[in-house]
Specification:
Number of strands of chain B: 18
Radius of gyration of chain A: 16 Å
Helix content of chain B: under 10%
Structural class of chain A: mainly alpha
Radius of gyration of chain B: 17 Å
InterPro entries (chain A): UreF (IPR002639), UreF_sf (IPR038277)
Largest sheet of chain A: none
CATH topology of chain A: Urease accessory protein UreF
Distance between the termini of chain B: 42 Å
Helix content of chain A: over 70%
Largest sheet of chain B: 11 strands, mixed
Number of domains of chain A: 1
Distance between the termini of chain A: 32 Å
Protein name (chain A): Urease accessory protein UreF
Strand content of chain A: under 5%
Order of helices and strands of chain A: HHHHHHHHHH
CATH class of chain A: Mainly Alpha
GO molecular function, one term (chain A): nickel cation binding
Number of domains of chain B: 1
Structural class of chain B: mainly beta
Number of helices of chain A: 10
Number of strands of chain A: 0
Oligomer: heterodimer
Shape of chain A: globular
Order of helices and strands of chain B: EEEEEEEEEEEEEEEEEEH
Number of helices of chain B: 1
GO cellular component, one term (chain A): cytoplasm
Subunit structure (chain A): UreD, UreF and UreG form a complex that acts as a GTP-hydrolysis-dependent molecular chaperone, activating the urease apoprotein by helping to assemble the nickel containing metallocenter of UreC. The UreE protein probably delivers the nickel.
Strand content of chain B: over 45%
Chain lengths: 220, 247
C-alpha cells in the first residue's frame, strides 16, 4: 500500500463533496443533543460504532473486490432512511467523478456505468481505494475517520466550538477508529453475508426531519 | 444450569397448525382466531432467558397461510449464574401469498443481564409481514443490561432490511449519546412488508419528534422510534400499526 495515496483519499480537501454533510450533527445540535465538546465526543463515538462500522465494512468489502451489486444491495438494506440513501448515492456519484479523474482505471469505469445514479458512497470509496492500490483496512480507516471528522468539522461551524477542542475529540477517538477499521476489514474478508449492520435509531429518525427543514446549513 | 429450548410453529393455508410444539420456558397456545388469522400466543417466557440459555422459535408460514403470533407477557432478559450471554433466535419464513403478523410483547433488558437476540426472516416475493420489536433498557428506574439485537429480513432472496442494535454496559461506547439513543430508554421498530408498496410506497414522514415512517428500498415501510419508556413507545407503534397495517 501507499501511505501517501491513503492521505490523498482521506484528505478533507479531496473534492468529493463530503464537506456539505454534517453526518446528522446539524439535527443533533438543533435538538440540543450536542452543546459542547463532550456531547460531540459522545455523538461521534456512537456514530463511529454504528453507521461508521457498517459503512467501513462496506468500503473494505469493495476494496477487497467483493461484487459491488451485492454490496450496494447490502447498503440499501442497512439504510432505512430514504434521505440517507439519497445522500449516500449523491456522495457516491461525486466521489466517483473525483476518483476516476484521480486514479483512472477500467474497474471504476465499469462501476460508474453499472450505477448511473451513483452507488452508495462507501462502496465507491472502497473501489477508489482499490484503484489507488490501497487495501481493505485502508478503505475502512478512511470511512471511520470521515464518520467522525464530518460531524466534528460541522459542529465547529454550527456551535462555534473551539476547533482545538474538536480536533482533540478526534484524537481521543483514534484508538477506537483503529479497532472499528480492523473489525470492518476482518468482516469484509468473510464475504457480504458477514458484514456488520450496526445502526443508530436517532440518526435514522432525525435524517428525515432534517431533510424536511426549509433552511439548513448542511445537506444531511 | 443453562437450558436449550426450541419452539416450533407451522401454519397451513387451511388454517391448520400441523406443528405447534413448545419447549422449556417457551410454551405455545392456539388462541382465539383474530379475523382471518390463525393465532398462536407465546406464554410463559417471563422468566427467561437467563445468562447462558439458548432459546429459539421457528415459525413457518406456508404458501397462502395467515398467522398471527403474539405473547402473553413481556420477555425479561435476566442475569444467570453463567457468565455466558443468553441467546434468543427467531427464525421465520413466509411462503407465497402467506401473511404473518408477528406482534410479541416487549423485550426488557434487566440490569446485569446479557442477551443476544437474532431475528431472521425469509419472505417469498408475494408474502406479507407485520413485525414489531421493542427493546426496553432496564426495568423502571434501573440501569440497562447488555442487549444486542439483529434483525435480518430477506425478500425473494435479496436483502430488504438488516439492522443491529447494541445497548448497555457491554456495548461499544456512544450508545447512549446523541447519535444513537440520546438518553431514551426504549426503542422499537415496526416493519410492514407488502408487495402493494412496490406500486405505492409510503411517504417518509415523522411521527411526532422521536419516530419516523420510512419507505425501504424494497416494498416495505419501517417505523423507527425512540421513547422515554415502554408505554410511550407502544402508543407510538400502535398508532403506526393502525395506520399502516390494520387487521
Amino acid at each position: 500500500m501507499s501511505r501517501s495515496a491513503l492521505l490523498v483519499l482521506a484528505d478533507g480537501r479531496f473534492p468529493a463533496g463530503g464537506h456539505a454533510h454534517s453526518g446528522g450533527a446539524e439535527a443533533a445540535v438543533r435538538a440540543g443533543r450536542i452543546t459542547d465538546a463532550a456531547g460531540l465526543e459522545s455523538f461521534c463515538r456512537g456514530r463511529l460504532h454504528t453507521t461508521g462500522l457498517t459503512s467501513a465494512a462496506l468500503a473494505a468489502g469493495a476494496a477487497h473486490g467483493l461484487d459491488p451489486h451485492g454490496l450496494d444491495a447490502a447498503a440499501d438494506a442497512r439504510t432505512p432512511s430514504p434521505a440517507l440513501r439519497d445522500a449516500a448515492r449523491r456522495l457516491g456519484r461525486q466521489l466517483m467523478r473525483a476518483a476516476r479523474a484521480t486514479w483512472p482505471c477500467p474497474e471504476l469505469d465499469a462501476l460508474a456505468a453499472a450505477f448511473p445514479r451513483g452507488a452508495h458512497q462507501p462502496v465507491v470509496l472502497g473501489a477508489a481505494a482499490r484503484a489507488a492500490g490501497l487495501g481493505p483496512e485502508d478503505a475502512a480507516h478512511c470511512v471511520a475517520y470521515e464518520t467522525v471528522g464530518g460531524p466534528a468539522t460541522a459542529v465547529v461551524r454550527l456551535l462555534g466550538l473551539d476547533p482545538y477542542q474538536a480536533t482533540a475529540v478526534l484524537a481521543r477517538l483514534a484508538p477506537e477508529m483503529d479497532r472499528v477499521a480492523e473489525r470492518a476489514a476482518a468482516a469484509a474478508r468473510q464475504g457480504v453475508d458477514a458484514l456488520p449492520a450496526a445502526s443508530a435509531p436517532l440518526l435514522d429518525i432525525t435524517a428525515e426531519q432534517h431533510a424536511a427543514w426549509p433552511v439548513r446549513l448542511f445537506a444531511s | 444450569m443453562s437450558l436449550r429450548a426450541t419452539a416450533r410453529i407451522t401454519a397451513d393455508a387451511d388454517g391448520g397448525l400441523p406443528l405447534l410444539v413448545g419447549d422449556g420456558p417457551l410454551a405455545l397456545r392456539r388462541t382465539r382466531a383474530q379475523g382471518p388469522y390463525t393465532r398462536v400466543t407465546v406464554v410463559g417466557a417471563m422468566s427467561a432467558p437467563l445468562g447462558g440459555d439458548r432459546l429459539a422459535i421457528e415459525a413457518e408460514v406456508r404458501d397462502g397461510a395467515r398467522l398471527l403470533v403474539d405473547a402473553a407477557a413481556a420477555t425479561l432478559a435476566l442475569p444467570g449464574r453463567s457468565t455466558e450471554p443468553a441467546a434468543y433466535d427467531v427464525r421465520i419464513s413466509v411462503g407465497e401469498e402467506g401473511v404473518l403478523r408477528w406482534l410479541p410483547e416487549q423485550l426488557v433488558s434487566v440490569h446485569g443481564s446479557e442477551l443476544r437476540m437474532r431475528t431472521t426472516v425469509e419472505l417469498a416475493a408475494t408474502a406479507r409481514l407485520v413485525l414489531r420489536e421493542e427493546q426496553i433498557l432496564g426495568r423502571h428506574g434501573e440501569p440497562s443490561g447488555t442487549l444486542v439485537t439483529r434483525l435480518t429480513v430477506r425478500r425473494a432472496g435479496r436483502p430488504l432490511l438488516d439492522q443491529e442494535l447494541a445497548f448497555g454496559p457491554g456495548a461499544p461506547g456512544g450508545w447512549d449519546g446523541g447519535a444513537v439513543l440520546g438518553g431514551h430508554r426504549a426503542t422499537g421498530q415496526l416493519l410492514v412488508v407488502d408487495p402493494a408498496f412496490a406500486v405505492k410506497p409510503v411517504d417518509a414522514r415523522p411521527i411526532g419528534e422521536h419516530a419516523v415512517v420510512t419507505p425501504l428500498a424494497g416494498p416495505a415501510a419501517l417505523v423507527t422510534a425512540v421513547a422515554p419508556d415502554a408505554l410511550v413507545l407502544r402508543r407510538l407503534l400502535d398508532a403506526a400499526l393502525a395506520d399502516l397495517a390494520p387487521c
